[in-house]
Amino acid sequence: MKIIKVKNYDEMSKIAANIIASKIILDDHCTLGLATGSTPIGTYQNLIKKYQNGDISFKNIKTINLDEYVGLNEEDTRSYRYFMNDNLFNHVDIDKSNTHVPKGMAQDMEQESERYNRLIEDLSPVSVQLLGIGENGHIGFNEPNDYFPLKTHVEKLTDSTIKANQRFFEKGEHTPEFAITMGIENIMSAQTVIILASGIKKAQAMRDSLQGKVMPNVPASILQLHKDLIVIGDEDAFSMMDI
Ligand code: GLP
Q1: For residue 196, how far is its CA from the centre of ligand 1 (angstroms)?
Q2: What angle, 0 to 180 degrees and rounded to 10, lies between the N-to-C axes of helices 80-87 and 41-52?
Q3: CB of 37 closer than 6 A to ligand 1?
Q4: Which of 9, 13, 81, 141 to mutate to test the pocket of ligand 1 (most atoms within 8 A of CB)?
Q5: Alpha-carbon torsion 39, 89, 11, 1, what sign?
Q6: What residues are paired with 128 via a beta bridge?
Q7: ∠ CA 95-101-102 to the nearest 5 degrees?
Q8: Residue 153 annotated among the catalytic residues of the structure
Q9: Which one of 43, 99, 213, 242 has the minimum C-beta count within 10 Å?
Q10: Closest by Cα among 9, 6, 10, 12 to 194
């Protein structure tokens, strides 16, 4: 595990973008595993700048995202497909047909999960999987559990996740209770995994995940077993760890 401790969010975002850009430079046909949430937005902004400067091109890049809310369509501004278009894809030269997000409005979510697993295999190897972390240690939408779900599946969101993500929805508006997410084995199969964390709210999850026991009750703890894990966090996110 490589730990990179930085001062703040901006520094974290720059370093993450540099690492992803280097993967693109080494293989401009590679597959990137992407994430949503507020944490990776700065990384995407830095990647857009690199594209605008002519340093990288997404022309032949393929992407696969971690997860999507069940019941939100692609035009819904709260959907993760919308987020990805808005925060990255609309600003670079990527071919949208090479970008993949699970379909939250699929008629049969089991079939959609199987389709997504096959897609992950077809697009493998995922060169680098970008991750944020939930306050309860979740990755993708893999919530604390008594086992590690391996493949893409539908997950019932915990109250704490629904509460944490409520900020993206109007007050009083119904927040989705289910999501479709890559499983732990899907995530672990990436060649490199980058996990980002910024802010004091992530400090406990970071300590439990990186220095605690590997257990499904802290889903991100499995990352300790990944052969090429890069952790980039700011001082607040590492404030409960002795590093
Ligand atoms: C959601 C996403 C995760 C993300 C987490 C943290 O639950 N499914 O992929 O890591 O939120 O989000 P944020 O970065 O906004 O704190």
Answers
A1: 10
A2: 40
A3: yes
A4: 141
A5: positive
A6: 32, 192
A7: 145
A8: no
A9: 242
A10: 12
* Strand-pair category, 126-131 with 31-34: parallel
Does residue 38 have its Cβ closer than 6 Å to ligand 1?
Answer: yes
Distance (Å, whole) CA 212 – CA 198 = 19
Residue of 117, 136, 165, 186 with catalytic role: 136
Tens-digit pLDDT profile for residues 170-221: 887 888 999 999 999 999 999 999 999 999 999 999 999 999 999 999 999 9
- Any bridge partners for residue 62, and if so which? 31
34 strand-pairing partners:
65
Residue 195 has a pLDDT of 98
Six-digit token string for 216: 């499904």
What's the 51 CA to ligand 1 centre distance in angstroms? Answer: 25
Q: Which of 142, 163, 178 has its CA nearest to residue 69?
A: 178
Give the atom of ligand 1 at the shortest distance from the alpha carbon of 40. Answer: 14
φ/ψ of 61, rounded to 5, equals -80, 145
Is 208 an active-site residue? no
Tell me which residues of the chain have a pLDDT lower than 70: none
Q: What is the DSSP string of 200-226?
A: GGGHHHHHHHHHS---TTSGGGGGGG-
